[in-house]
Amino acid sequence: MAYVITDTCTKDALCVDVCPTDCIHPKKDEPDFEAETQLFVDPVECIDCGACVPVCTTDSVHALEDVPEDKKEFIDRNAAYYKK
What we know:
This protein is of the alpha+beta class. 21% of the residues lie in helices and 12% in strands. The protein has helices spanning 14-18, 52-55, 73-81; strands at residues 3-5, 24-25, 40-41, 61-63. A two-stranded antiparallel sheet has the order 1-4. The two termini are 17 Å apart.
């Protein structure tokens, strides 16, 4: 997993728009968009390009090694989303 999205995500989808591999979900047109409280980066599909980081207005996207200590639980949450 290259990047992790945390709970400060507002689902504005700016990261979705710039992602070259379409690895951030759920998108606004997907059934679980309303139910989820944040977006998630697919750990397999992410190519570690970093395009999502500068467009995030809430500082919710972090490189795996830079996830703040109090947000480490979101590493597992992001991975778990794609195991459904």
